[in-house]
């Protein structure tokens, strides 16, 4: 199945891209905090490769990007977080309407609403991070409404043929490194793990971790999991899986 065909499989409010693009250009000024067509940094015919190519003065909101070898994608660009120009690839809230227990193909092409809870698409994560060297910021909000983050100076998702494994670089941020560190009494490790879904088990556990939570880079099963309904786990911040929200942001890094 080609990428163009895959766009027809987007769920929820992610409708067919040609329709989305026309609606975006026609209606984007209607909602609060949404950029007007005049605030876009590129013309309709030439989409940026990611949100880092927008002008620094552009507001956060819905934009169209086009990673190399990819059809155009509607995304949320975060122009407020430190450094600006972040492409949002995941957003989740504790009481989300999304179950997150979706199939491999659904995860591949993405689902949800870019203005709310959503998954960009594992294939598009791969295409996006093949363009150069990217970094990632994982953000969670705890029950006290405090925000915490973990950043890795390299973030890459490999190809579908290799199982969409996760590659992470050096850790910085708050708390301990629960993604590249090995924790045998928890879920092992996440770095270098293949992506697993309810219908494609690629973890190192005897069962299928995705059956209990959702698609993720599992080992045995998790130290951290952000793709789940009523269970957003980050040790030290939300030990009981009770984070109120999560966000995954990516942008190019200076690391060679």
TrEMBL record:
List keywords of the entry alphabetically: Signal
The entry's cellular-component GO terms read:
extracellular space
Would you indicate the residue range of the signal peptide? 1-30
Where is each Fibrinogen C-terminal domain found? 42-254
Does the record's keyword annotation contain Signal?
Answer: yes
The membrane-spanning stretches of this chain are none
Matches recorded under InterPro entries: Fibrinogen-like_C, Fibrinogen_a/b/g_C_1, Fibrinogen_a/b/g_C_dom, Fibrinogen_C-term_domain
Full protein name: Fibrinogen C-terminal domain-containing protein
Q: Which organism is it from?
A: Meleagris gallopavo (Wild turkey)
